[in-house]
Amino acid sequence: MKTIAIECLRYNPETDAAPRYQTYDVPFTDDMSLLQGLQHVKDHIDGSLTFRWSCRMAICGSCGKMVNGVPALSCQTFLRDYHPGKVRVEPLNHFPIVRDLAIDQSDFLNKLESVKPWLIPAEAKTVAQGTHLQTPEQLDDYYQYSQCINCLLCYAACPQYGLNPAFTGPAALALLHRYNADSRDGGKRERMEVVNAEDGVWGCTLVGYCSEVCPKGVDPARAVNQNKIESTKDYFLRFLMPGGKVT
Amino acid sequence: MKTYVRPMTAWWWRRNPFYRWYMVREASCVFITAYALELLVGLARLAQGRAAFEAWRESLASPGAVVFHVVTLAFVAYHAWTWFNVMPKTLPFVRLGGRRVPDRMIVVTAIGSAVAASIAVFLAVWWYRP
Question: Looking at the partner chain, which of B4, B12, B88 has a beta carbon nearest the beta carbon of A11?
Fold first, then answer.
């Protein structure tokens, strides 16, 4: 069986002042993912290695890591693609490290909540009045954005988030747009405050790497830059609208 | 909860080719600004009279100026290329006959139009050259 060197960033908040690296030689087969490699380390070599994972099939979004400096889901990364070289695994960039490969996601979770990621119906409908109908074209307007699994690879890819952690960031703004672009939603007005803020869409300089690394084909850069237009319209149209309110 | 925050140095962009090309795009603005200033100087020289304008025009023929223009042309071309490539991201979905126009089509049309317009301008200037 072939073996591959997996170099892991290690950090124990109780004993370490700063992170260090530790290399494990892991036997692997061609069908083994990096996640399986890490699980081998935890089960057979070093039980103290800490990392998050759950579904093993790119659905849950918990196993994101930096793999040789690139944000990736470890369940979707195959060890065979790195052999005979080594794989360097680090926690997702730009997030505080809790322990080893596990990051603190609370900043993102607060931002996610701030965009009100749920349908705010324009007018309440009773069950008797029937369902909210939608055409395939209206579905197409937001479907891609609704595929986000909150894996945070886009945040690890975004240098603007790294330089300014106050930036609302790609996934939260993509999900904001997912609801604003939904024909059943009437909550745009409430979300524009997040869009227009100093740390809203204008914190983006269109590096575009967020959309490159997304494992679900979401295009956060598009959502953010669509909303630069919305924000501009919102700013200028208020001068023309009676009462200064738009949408 | 004690956490460790990794510092981000001024050299963060060196580690990934995607970031390096992004920085080339951002750096292109320096050359574009320099070229805009050069044109502005030309305009000021024109206002000063024929002799001043001719002197400015002659200064553009110096080897240094030629090298600057070639480098600037490369940067401007790359700058335009990158922005045409992200153009679909800045547009609402474009639909024709009920179907979404593919991003690639928008990019190809935009770059094609820019190239055609550049050739047309070049030919027009060439045709009417003194």
Answer: B4
- Helix, strand, or coil here: B25? helix
- Which residues partner with A65 through β-bridges? A72
Measure CA of the first residue to CA of the last residue in chain B; give whole Å.
Answer: 75
CATH class of A106-244: mainly alpha
What span, in angstroms and rounded, lies between the C-alpha atoms of B71 and B68? Answer: 5
Q: What is the DSSP letter of B62?
A: S
Check for a shared fold between A2-103 and A106-244: no
Contact residues for B27 (Cβ-Cβ < 8 A; gap 6+): B75
A241/B contact by beta carbon, under 8 A: no
Picking from B122, B21, B32, B42, the residue whose alpha carbon sits closest to that of residue B72 is B32
Confirm or reject contact between A207 and chain B (CB < 8 A).
Answer: yes
pLDDT tens digits for range A117-160: 999 998 888 889 988 899 999 999 999 999 999 999 999 999 99
- Chain A neighbours among B 9-28 (CB < 8 Å)? 12-13, 15-16, 18-19, 22, 26
Here the ipTM equals 0.89
Mutate: best of A68, A100, A206, A210, partner B, most B CBs <10 A: A206
**Interface-testing mutation among B1, B4, B26, with chain A (most A C-beta atoms within 10 A):** B4
CATH of A2-103, one of 3.10.20.30, 2.40.50.140, 3.30.1330.10, 3.30.530.20: 3.10.20.30
Hey, is the C-beta of B99 within 8 angstroms of any chain A C-beta? no
